[in-house]
Amino acid sequence: QDALVALHCCCLAVLVRSAPVPASTSAGMNQEFKQAVERSKTLVEKILRDIPTVHGATINTPGLTLDPSSQQANLQMMVKTLGIPAAPVLKQLSETFTLDLCVNRMSQGVNLHKDLLEAVSNKLTGLTDLTSDLRDLQTQIGKMQEQGHLSSAEQYQSPDLASHLNGDYEVQVADHLSLKQLLSFCHDLMRSLRQIATLQ
């Protein structure tokens, strides 16, 4: 009997050690939080569907396509010239990449691309619906932060794109780069939202 007790304790210890480390407390996973996650997923799906259409409607410069195989080498230099920041990095939830940090970076990323496209929209038509969807998405992510009692030390800094849009070419390239980066960010965002949706 002592041997069975010892074996039981050993098995419990193994289970505890092998259990995944929670990304954050689940106390905030209430119904309102879950609804905000689902609404965010719906909005991201819509944005992903709309980006190719918006790109086709607003870009008329040859060579600027969403096809990765046709990208021009000089566009990387234009990213620096225009001052377009890279999108925040989203990772799989873990002990070091917590729910707080993940949702905060979601918020930063959505804000970044909203601000970029709003700057471009002052020079170019056809971006209104997409920027409106990004504002709606930011609202839902804000609800996730509120309902989940989430906070992070990372702060958002708005880009200064408007001062670099001096000509039609700069406007076209800024539009293209912003939409292309938003497309990639939204794929990462969807993966994170799907993982968050599995939290209890």
UniProtKB/TrEMBL annotation:
Keywords, comma-separated and alphabetical: Signal
Signal peptide feature range: 1-18
Keyword Signal included in the entry's annotation: yes
Record has Ribonucleoprotein as a keyword: no
One Gene Ontology molecular-function label: cytokine activity
Gene Ontology BP, a term: positive regulation of myeloid cell differentiation
Domain of life: Eukaryota
Protein name: Colony stimulating factor 3 (granulocyte) a
Organism field: Myripristis murdjan
Gene: LOC115363680
